[in-house]
Amino acid sequence: MEKSNRLFVFIGALVLIGLIFITRLFFLQIIDTSNYYKAQAYGSNEITIYPARGTIVDRNGQLMVYNDASYDLMVVPQKAKDFDKVALCKELIIDTTEFNKRLKKAARYNPREASVIYKNLPFYLYTRLQEVLYQYPAFYIETKIDRRYNINGAAHLLGYMGEVSERELEKDKYYKPGDVKGITGLEKSYEKYLRGIKGKKVVLVDKFSKQQGSFAGGKFDSLPTAGENIISSIDLNLQIYAEMLLANKIGSIVAIEPATGEVLCIVNNPNYDPNLLVGQQRNRNFSALLLDPSKPLFNRALKAPYPPGSTFKTVQALIGLQEGVLTPGTRYPCHGGYRMGSITVGCHSHASPLDLENSITKSCNAYYCHVYRSILDNPKYSSVQAAYLQWTKYLNSFGIGTKTGIDLPEESSGIVKKSAYFERVFGKNWRSSNVVSISIGQGEIGLTPLQMANVAAIIANRGYYYTPHVVRSIGDAQYVREEFLKRHYTLIEERHFDSVIAGMAKVCKPGGTAGRTGIEGIDICGKTGTAQNPHGKDHSIFIAFAPRVNPKIAICVIVENGGFGADYAAPIANLLIERYMATDKTAPSSKPEMQKRMLTANLTGKKLSASDSLKALVTKTIK
Amino acid sequence: MDEKLHIDWLTVSLYIIIVLFGAVNIYSANSGVNEAISLDFSKEYGKQVIWIGISAIIVFLILLTDYKFFNFSAYGIYIIIIGMLLALLATGSFNKGAQAWFKIGAFKLQPSEFAKYATALALAKFLGTFDVKFEGRRNQLISFGILLLPMMLTLLQNDTGSALVFTCFILVLFREGLSGWWLVLGFYLITIFVLTIIIPSWYILLALLLILAGFIYFIYKQKQLMMVSILIFIVSAVYIIGLDFAFSKILKPHQQQRILVTLNQDVDEYYANKQKSFSFFKFEKKENDKKSESKRDYSYNVRQSKISIGAGRWWGNGFNNGTQTKAKLVPEQHTDFIFCTVGEEYGFVGSSIFLILYLLFIGRIFYLAERQKNVFSRVFGYCTGSIIFFHFFINIGMAIGVLPVIGIPLPFMSYGGSSLISFSMLLFTFLKLDANRVNEISRLY
Ligand SMILES: [Zn+2]
């Protein structure tokens, strides 16, 4: 080879090496992505900055739910090597086998990502760890915000926070393992507003896992956006008072502002303290609540279908009037009840015959057997079944047999049977006499306390309602959800309400079924109910609104095993109305005897211990 | 100087691009995470700016110097540098690490960097002498002597990387007539050496035997060729067994580990496998934690380097935005691992463009070298190209994990005054010689 041609050997070598290097680079940078992901894990740490969760205040601006900091010890398992395990366990006051178990679990989840290794550090551990943690570069403390509830009951309303499940992690990319979200109540239904937007900080980490400061001058960092603060429609004072009145009784109270559909209070008893489900004791407390035979986790107000009893007569009367089978002047006789063949529906003794107005005031059973049968046997319809179908349409327009659409999770639609159900039970051509108990709200009919309160609101409004809701507005802009501004009209014309309301207005006056429970100076329109309970004493039920003109509050009270409507439900409802209507909220009740009787009554069948919740509730300050 | 300066501006442009790009990357690797872009002369990137300034002055001086000066003083410079290396050895004033320094104020100078320059001059001078022909056995030995002397002195200072660079002069000798077979032989011996250490020698012998059998099957009629190949096999076998014995029985564990680490071997795994597999020589593994530590550092370097480059993907993170770079996860990133910064911040596209530009730069030097009319200039040109090429090949190969970790800088890119100045001197001395060639030609018209 001519020596000058050896230049081409050199050039060839350069080209060859260039090709080899570029191919290798292509493999390293494009094909093999593992280096890229390792780089993300090593070089920088993305730290999530949790936004402050929105607070919840009541309609008067009183704080109901707020935030409090808690601290978790986090570990990046891959980096947790070569550290003094024994010393760290000593700091944490935890034995090494337990520690190893947790570390292994974290490593199994994701060795490169931080996982919680010690949840909810007690404050003394938090302060002590801060001084020694620099020796353990794989560990750091993450500050999380815990929810605090300013009220010991109301758990069904406010809800509580819990860790997101694996399924939710997949569904919503917002969440990362270990995050919490609203599990029930307002916390759940307004999760998207309350949670805010997470921020992040990309922090550079050197080979000793020591943070070197934020990356690229914070170019990739973002500040968290705090969650929206929510103004609830709940009146905290009323809520607490209602909880006190319902203490040691099983039942439910729902109050609604008829003009807006805003829920003023929503109470269940038994209930539980949402603060129990915060922090370290959460799991233990939750299983205790789940196993409690009194079912404290059961949201009666939204889920329990109670037979409405005589309160249902108001609805029956309105449907009769609208159908034209009943006029305010219609009179039916009653001699201790309604008899028809083998069927007997008893009634208490009262003057007879009664007109519509007085049938409400006196709550005559026989009257409504006549009314209901005339509705179902209306010759306008080809059959009882067709009439029944029309009747259920009326009910649906009252929000009965359908969900009201309240902004809380787990609402039930109550019980309204289809005609087909009776066909199965009584045969194809079942007759109105078969279902006569529905006349007086017994049998195949069930309303949730919320639905009953909504019925009271409908009567107060004379024919329409707004979807009941517990949130008045969202955020600083006080945004109100559009669906809450829409009136839902029933199929009943406004004029038909006069006589029903006139009857209800006399219920809490002498001569009415709850004549001794009335409040001086307030025009309360109510209707008692007593729901037969095959398992024990009857349930005491009362629906009401007040005042008669320009109603401010509609309410439903149910006290299980409370006997007659006038025994417990009506007094409690009227005390609540009095408190709500009072200009001076601290003024004593005009019926101190009745108030005391309600506050101290114990219908649980259990002996009260000194530490029982009654004491706790009574001593609670009402501002 | 009354002639027009006929310097090769293409090479100069590429030089300026590479030096400035180097400074940018040193800044990225060296400045703090959220530091405002500024010039801090107490930091390496600030010092590099000073080195660039000094290099510019030296380049200017070289361009002003008469071209005859280099030829005239070649041996003198060589002798001075050899003297300096000897002085360093004699006084023992080299630090425990690999580098030997002369301290000048706050700056350190590394004679071994300048030894390459001096060797290039001396080799060019010798081969350029009027009646010297490289074909002569005596002249070949003198040529090897010229490069072996500084190589050995550097090796004695424990600077293995820099010493290895002197092997690149073989390329120059190849251009000047050294048989290509020597390159093939050298490649063969190095390959066998590496294989013997990293896989059981028994496998290599078997493989060679199979190759021999196959070869003989085709050429069994040519008795002479058959004898030669059998001879090669026997010599190879002796070489392999000798190496195996020397490595297993003569070398001390820490020496073994040093070699293993250089070959990217996981020391613990290596010993475990070696004991299990069939090997001619069993050896006691003595745990030496200190050495294990250094092993971990080397493999750590390469792993981090690969991660850092891999993080760049197609387009890279952009200037000053490499996470690995800014977190200083790659040790020595501003010096020997400067290519990681290129890889991470400029991605596959940027890195490839950079490699192509750099190879163009080297190719241009070889091209210029070949067009020289006198042997001195040509040999010096090939020396320049070969030295830069060798550094480039080893440095990038190490960073992307295809070659063992040998700590030598990437010319014009890596941080370091001695390196930048010596490479600039080398390049511009050659460009001055090249400019003179053009001047000679232009005088003909
Ligand atoms: Zn009656």
Q: What's a quick, concise take on this entry?
A:
The complex is a heterodimer of chains A (623) and B (445). Chain A is α+β, with helices and mostly antiparallel strands. Chain A has 22 helices and 22 strands.
Strand content of chain B: under 5%
* Number of spatially distinct domains of chain B: 2
CATH architecture of the largest domain in chain A: 3-Layer(aba) Sandwich
- Please state the average pLDDT score of chain A: 86
SS elements, strand count of chain B? 2
Name the pair of protein chains with the most residues at their interface, and give those residue counts. Answer: A-B, 45 and 51 residues
Low-confidence stretches of chain A: 609-623
Provide the helix percentage of chain B: over 70%
Overall average residue pLDDT of chain B: 77
Oligomeric composition of the shown chains: heterodimer
Tell me roughly what share of residues is in helical segments of chain A.
25-40%
Q: What is the strand tally of chain A?
A: 22
> What strand order characterises the main sheet of chain B?
1-2
CATH class of the largest domain in chain A: Alpha Beta
